[in-house]
Amino acid sequence: QLDEPFLVLDLKENEKSLFHTVYTKIGKECPKLKIIVATYFEGLRDNLQTAVSLPIVALHIDIVRYPEQLDEVLNTLPPKLIISLGVVDGRNVWKNDFTQSLQFIVKAINKIGSERIMLAPSCSLLHSPCDLDLETNEKVLIPEIKQWLAFAKQKIAEIVVLKYLALKDNMGNITSKLNENISIHNSRKISKIIYNEEIKQRLDEITEKDTKRENIFYDRRKKQYRSLNLPLFPTTTIGSFPQTPEIRNWRAKLKKEEITKTEYNDFLKKETKKAIHWQEEIGIDVLVHGEFERNDMVEYFGEQLEGFVFTENAWVQSYGSRCVKPPIIFGDVYRSNPMTVEWSKYAQSLTKKYVKGMLTGPVTILQWSFVRNDQPRWQTCMQVALAIRDEIIDLEKAGIKIIQIDEPAIREGLPLRRIDWENYLEWAVRAFRIATSGVKDETQIHTHMCYSEFNDIIHNIADMDADVITIECSRSQMELLDAFANFKYPNEIGPGVYDIHSPRIPSRDEIIYLLEKAKEVIPAEQLWVNPDCGLKTRDWEETKKALIEMVQAAKSLRKKITESVLL
């Protein structure tokens, strides 16, 4: 099997031609080799002819992500080419709907015969947790929800059951498994823990007014300038500070009930207080509380929102050696209580400087969770947006003047085909605006997007209408700012001035050099100074040294510009 998900992208003619060149050469070099080409995450669409004309014995297609392609594929298949039907979702955790999958399988059998059909998951099971049977704690994953799920081990079993159902082979009483599957899916459709009519009604009542701030940025900026009175090149960080072994140890002790919640919170308050006072000491302009109470930027919010459930062992690979345990969105999402207000209020009470409220945005929460598959993703995203909106309004009422909503997954969520971008970006931007448009002009909304290319979606970024956007720029030596400069981005920007994924401490001169490059393309009065991303994974020694250099660089540049104006 050779995986070729590239075949579901928008391809140029020379790229399509290259497939023929390469696979013809492989066939000549290895004439006895039987090759399966696997495509997934999208449909073949206009690349179908290229795929079916390759010298291969079988072609795998993703029926979960793009079921519409089945008819065209069946009508285009050359004689003898085997089709592998990806009917079980390899990227989500929900039990397969046997009735629906059988419709696809039977259609294929009637068209080309069962001997030319293979059954498989839609893609590699790398993206699925390993084994649902390991989830034995009913307090964490209640049986009613657990029965709706299938992890990698269970998905393989589903493939086997579908085979026998399609062949009408009653081996091992397969019919009873179909009846059980139908019963489980029916129970999910009528479950009282999934649906909340108030949330659905609230979603239906959203108007255009709910997606817009009171005034445009130009007018808001004047009010924020008077209210916040920040200096030129204001300094801040992206939010998190080092999650030290001591912090993780205290969290583990709380989980094991070796300490009380009060003892844990007292420890976190001490850590927060130290972080606030240290930031004051080195002269950072807009402070953060450090997020010591948070385990993960999505999991922390999912634990406090209704409609989410968690597991104990459902780990999946995120990148490199990093693994995550994504929350599962099983029902209508809403906020029953404030999530971050008390920690933000406490941090703000420790200083006269501004402390940013820190939230994860609706699109990122959606992208980094296992999402329910019984309603459109955009609808779930809007529910999350309303919950974040409520939190932002409460933060403002609590006296928090600057609130950051992180959306690093906006670009990650882009569909693979450009023709589908507009629809996705419309509802993704709308979700952000619903979340952030309930506050007064004087409240400054920040967003953070790390490690993304913005050229082709810059107008959508502008449509989000955040007062300040912070982005990764140090690796590109500020080249990513060109997109904002060419577009004449009107709002304020914090281009990251050093790479937080490296232990290397940047020098003051290096940071000044990057800021000088930044102000060549972006007016100085629009620029903020900050690291590329959060500092959760760094240690305190690196963090302190790097941030001191960053603050001093900003002060140096501030002084230089002031002196040049006076001259």
Structural topology:
Layout: E1 2-3, H1 13-29, E2 36-38, H2 48-52, E3 58-62, H3 69-76, E4 82-88, H4 98-112, E5 117-121, H5 143-146, H6 152-166, H7 174-190, H8 197-204, H9 217-228, H10 245-255, H11 261-282, E6 286-287, H12 299-302, E7 305-309, E8 316-319, E9 322-324, E10 328-335, H13 341-349, E11 354-355, E12 357-360, H14 362-367, H15 377-397, E13 402-406, H16 421-436, E14 444-449, H17 458-463, E15 468-471, H18 481-487, E16 492-495, H19 508-521, H20 540-566
Parallel strand pairs: 1-2, 2-3, 3-4, 4-5, 6-11, 12-13, 13-14, 14-15, 15-16
Antiparallel strand pairs: 7-10, 8-9
Domain Cobalamin-independent methionine synthase MetE N-terminal: 1-108
EC number: 2.1.1.14
Keywords: Amino-acid biosynthesis, Metal-binding, Methionine biosynthesis, Methyltransferase, Transferase, Zinc
